[in-house]
Amino acid sequence: MAAFKPIATTRSATGVLTSKLAVWWLLASEVVIFGGVLCSYLMHRIAHPEWAAYAAHTNEWIGLTNTFVLLSSSLTAVLAHNAAEREDGPLAARWLLATVGGACLFLMIKSFEWYTEISHGYTISANGFWSFYYTAAGIHASHVIAGGLIMLWVANTARKNEELHRVENVGLYWHFVDIVWIFLFPLLYIAK
Amino acid sequence: MIQSLIEPVSTYAGEVDFLFLLITVIVMPWFFLAEGMFFWLMWRFRYQEDQPAMYVTGNEPELKRWITVPHAMIIVLDLVLIAGAIRVWYMIKQDLPEPHETVRVIAQQWAWGFVHPGPDGLLDTEDDIEIADELHVQVGEVYHYQLESRDVLHNFSVPVFRLKQDALPGRRITGWFEATKTGVHDIQCAEMCGIGHGIMAARLFIHTPEEYQAWVDSHAPQQASAR
Amino acid sequence: MSSQPTVEHGHEEHGHEHHHEPAFIEKYIFPLDHKYIAMQYLLTGMFMAVFGGFFVYAFRLQLAFPGISVPLYGTVSPTEYNALVTNHGSVMIFWVAMPVLIAAFGNFLIPLMIGADDMVFPKLNRLSYQIFLASVVVLIVSWLVPGGGFGGAWTAYPPLSAKAQYSLTPLGSTLWLVAVALEFVAFLIGGINFITTAMNSRAPGMGAKDVPMVVWMICIASIMFMASVGPLIAGAVMLLFDQNLGTGFFDPDKGGDPILWQHLFWFFGHPEVYVVLLPATGIVAEIITVFSRKKLFGYQTILYTAIATGVLSFFVWAHHQFVAGIDPRMANVFTITTVLISIPIAEMMFLYIATLYGGSIRFTTPMLWALSFIAEFLIGGVTGIWLGASGMDIYFHDTYFVIAHFHYTFFPIAFIGTFAALSFWFPKMFGRMMDETLGKIHFWGTIIALNFIFIPLFVLGAAGQHRRIYNYNHYPELSTPDLQSLRVLATVSLLVLIAFQFVFLFNFFWSMFRGEKAPANPWRSTTLEWTTPSPPGHGNWSPNDMPRVYRGPYEYSVPGRDEDYWPQNQPS
Ligand code: HEA
Ligand code: HEA
Ligand code: CUA
Ligand SMILES: [Cu+2]
Questions:
Q1: What percent of chain C has pLDDT over 70?
Q2: Which among C126, C200, C254, C326 is the top mutation candidate for probing chain A, defined by the most A β-carbons within 10 Å of its own β-carbon?
Q3: Average pLDDT over residues C128-152
């Protein structure tokens, strides 16, 4: 089915592509969601110095590895964007798949990490710190999953050289997911 | 104006009632002016054969004045209003005078516990008088209250005092009041606290010093055990 | 909905392979056309308004005549009372005001007024409605589960809302929260669509100053919503975990803090009241200009006041928490910001009033509604000042003075604004005119009854009557015959008001099918939506004849012209 578009979608009074504009607004709304979580966490963290002891049980090496995985996947997202700029849809699709691979790796490492922590008794209801730990990272992980799924879908259209602008849009989203992690990592793992 | 609906019975109740009047005097003239102007314009510029509409953008200086001048005046009045509000707030919530006695108010679903200091005038001693749903105080003395909650949020509200304060689990909040007149009044819970929120009532008894002494004597724990 | 397009629509934008009108299911059940999605939102909102109205009917009768068996409902137990109040408030704000004012009119008006054929993302638009519909279903289910609907007030303060052992509505509270969260997601998606559409898809020639005020207002409101709801979405997740996973974000025993929820809630909750206010004021702007044949007085200044209100509204939230146990010094800061917000709003109202100056005012039904919006909203706005004064709010907090204050803002917004908009755009929506006589009967019946409901509530509040209490007999100072007769007056007036709503419902549905056929531009208005047939066909204009814009939206009574209006799309 040929994708249809209303005339409205093809206009661009601001000079920015409509879909890109929408992604920026989406990110703006996501920023405040994570902002809410992080502000709440910081307020509690400052009020409870004893949480530092709980935070000591997190494994910053795993966190660091995951940071590295996400950063690399951002790089492949950039490469996908480059390929799309050159109108090389199949290549862009391959780079996107690589990015999805990064997302999967991230999630696998995360599952392993959570599995060990939970088996040590650090569950979400153990105390305030662990509640925030799982909630903040969990909301982030759900964004990783969503991003992965969207990238699969975009890769599928890009492969056919269609809608190549989506490659950049999903890349923007992916960088955002990455940046959120850059905030979460020090706050949850390093601040002790 | 409020005092005609409900008696003021604390030292600061009069201040709150005065603040009400102050705000009324500041705000209501503007309100009536705005509404009056509005209805007059509606009447004056109703559709008439021989009166076509004018073309006005709102940038004409002689017309714009009608907006900017009130605008500036409202800013000034707002400052008066803020000063009045903060003064009363400071008096009730921030500046606690030295207490004659302290009572503890414990809220829980759906009853009030009041701990009176008893004959020795001190809380947390043997002779404290604990009683449900009745608060007894003396007229003309400064009291502190220590407000606690055992479960959810409640709100200690004494309308005749013009006093209201949320009770939070895990916290003890201190405030003050001084009654000016003897009598019996309502205490209510003013924060949604579940099914029994609507019946979470207590009574406030304001006694003369003699009556109060008699009440303390008849309720202090020794008497209770002696009987 | 009966008579259908006169416009060609064979162009490429058509959603599906076939070149005929979309089949019934596609058109009415899963439409992509913004106009039909608007109808879906409108009808769902009206459907929910009936629930919101029915709840208030049940609990007001209980207040006036404690213990009676309410006709069509039965006796109201304390548990049920709480659930009725909570769901009345939630429904009216989240499932009536938001979907009708923002989603329905936003959807209907934005593309038409900016000269576009649809929203930029029709599928996202449809998705937004479907999520909204899911939230409606979840909410209705929450009333029916064992234990009954959630009764912890629309503000849902924990620990009451967080623990089933306190609220005694284990399922009700969770489903209520899920419904609210879904609704937020629906409006986030819708909002992104609105904003990008208005930013990018304006007709050629339409600059920022040529955008009709209501489009501006809906977009500013959407941005405010987007910027304020995030923390509450996070808060909702946290509360959901507290309810079901045993976390303690808001539980002091586990190192949590119940006040945190209040901050998250009101950081959203206060901007939210302006989120619904702004679209209503936008609607009023469109109507008063048309029926006084005047240019809007100070278009740009109105825009600035709206933006100023929007920005300031993010700094006043703790005025709902003056006595909630926050640091008392913080109250002073929030008193200042709260009282200051009166300045842009006062200015906006003054500018609206000034718009009448030099006009030629025709008191049609939409105009009556628009004018009464201003008159009634001023009462609600002004009484906010007493509440904003921290010292005064110690006494007024959680009394009926607050109730009366916000109903004088919300009723004008949610109902008066909607009635104004419906009677004004009805011809465009359905291609037929509403009946003027019935419209006026409905207007006078509603407005008079309205004041008799809420003026008594101010008095009751000033006498110290608290909210959310199912029966005042336990409070000797509040159960005097004088006060009880005020309660009866308010309730009886409500019954009168409800009776007059049947006039509206009759007028609405009758006119939809039997009303007089509407011309394209019945009010002789300048904005673009009036340049297409009533109702507009698929795609709004024919694709090779999309409008172009030459001037601002309010060029009425321009000197030296024969006609007293100068449509935006007319080359000079
Ligand atoms: C759309 C709805 C709406 C709107 C527009 C407003 C507008 C305002 N509100 Fe209201 N408010 C609510 C909805 C709304 N509110 C709700 C729902 C609640 C209760 C929630 C709950 O607890 O359940 C509430 C509660 C509430 C409280 C908390 C009360 C309490 O619980 O203790 C306060 C306190 O400051 C407040 C203040 C204000 C102020 C200062 C304005 C201002 O924006 C008003 C500004 C307008 C004017 C001032 C009028 C025009 C000006 C003039 C005519 C000039 C003259 C003026 C001066 C000289 C100052 N509101
Ligand atoms: C938009 C918001 C809104 C609206 C419009 C209303 C409308 C009304 N409200 Fe409500 N109310 C709230 C929001 C609203 N309310 C909130 C947030 C609370 C606080 C809840 C809490 O404490 O948790 C509250 C609480 C509240 C209380 C306090 C209860 C208590 O604390 O014990 C009372 C008491 O009288 C009350 C009364 C009324 C009345 C009489 C109306 C009447 O004006 C209603 C009249 C309307 C109808 C009868 C419906 C008619 C419908 C149609 C005709 C269908 C057509 C519809 C369209 C075209 C859209 N409301
Ligand atoms: Cu305790 Cu309400
Ligand atoms: Cu507010």
A1: 95
A2: C200
A3: 94
The answer to whether C412 and B104 have CB atoms below 8 angstroms apart is no
A103-153 pLDDT, tens digit per residue, is 999 999 999 999 998 898 888 888 888 899 999 999 999 999 999 999 999
Q: Enumerate the H helices of B166-220 as residue ranges.
A: 209-219
Q: Which residue of B has its CA nearest to C345?
A: B71
Per-residue pLDDT tens over the stretch C183-197: 999 999 999 999 999
Q: Which helix (H) or strand (E) holds A110?
A: helix A89-119
Indicate which CATH number applies to the domain containing B107.
2.60.40.420
B51 and B137 share one domain: no
B127 with B146, same domain: the answer is yes
Q: What is the DSSP letter of C115?
A: T
Tokens 């997202």 sit on residue: A77
One domain, residues B71 and B56: yes
Domain boundary among the residues B68, B94, B120 is at: B94
pLDDT tier, C4 (very low <50, low <70, confident <90, very high otherwise): very low
Domain ranges of chain A: 18-190
Neighbours of chain B (3+ CB pairs under 8 A): C
Which band of pLDDT confidence, cut at 50, 70 and 90, is reported for residue C265?
Answer: very high
The answer to whether residues B37 and B62 belong to one domain is: yes
Length, in residues, of chain A: 192
CA distances from B23 to B32, B82, C458, C459 (A): 14, 10, 15, 16
| Ligand 1 atom closest to C313 (CA) | 43
| CATH 2.60.40.10 is right for the domain spanning A18-190 | no
What is the pLDDT averaged over residues A153-177?
90
- Mutation target among C59, C320, C356 for the B interface, most CBs of B within 10 A: C356
| The predicted structure's pLDDT at residue C543 | 84
Residues B83 and B153 in one domain: no
Chains A and B touch (3+ CB pairs under 8 A): no
Residue-number span of the structural domain to which B195 is assigned: 101-226
Position A33 pLDDT exceeds 90: yes
Number of H helices, E strands in chain A: 7, 0
Q: Is the CB of C341 under 6 A from ligand 1?
A: yes
Is the whole model's pTM more than 0.90, yes or no?
Answer: yes
Smallest CA–CA distance, residue A21 to chain C, in Å, is: 6
Distance C313 CA to ligand 1 centre (A): 11
Q: Indicate the number of domains in chain B.
A: 2
Average pLDDT, stretch C22-44?
A: 83
Contact indicator for B169, C158 with CB cutoff of 8 Å = no
My answer on whether B37 and B138 are in the same domain is: no
* In a shared domain, residues B88 and B157: no
**Reported ipTM:** 0.93
Kindly state the tokens that stand for C10: 């064979």
Q: Chains contacting C with at least 3 CB pairs below 8 Å?
A: A, B
Q: Which residue has the tokens 């392993």?
A: A112
Q: Tell me the domains of chain C and their CATH numbers.
A: 36-545 (1.20.210.10)
- Residue C217, Cα to own-chain centre: how many angstroms? 13
Q: CB contact, 8 Å: B77 with chain C?
A: no
The predicted model gives C512-520 an average pLDDT of 91
φ/ψ of B60, rounded to 5, equals -70, 125
One domain for residues B148 and B204:
yes
Q: What is the pLDDT of residue A4?
A: 63
Per-residue pLDDT at A9 = 82
Domain boundary among B44, B74, B94: B94
For residue C512 and ligand 1, the question of a CB distance below 6 A is answered with: no
Domain CATH for B22:
1.10.287
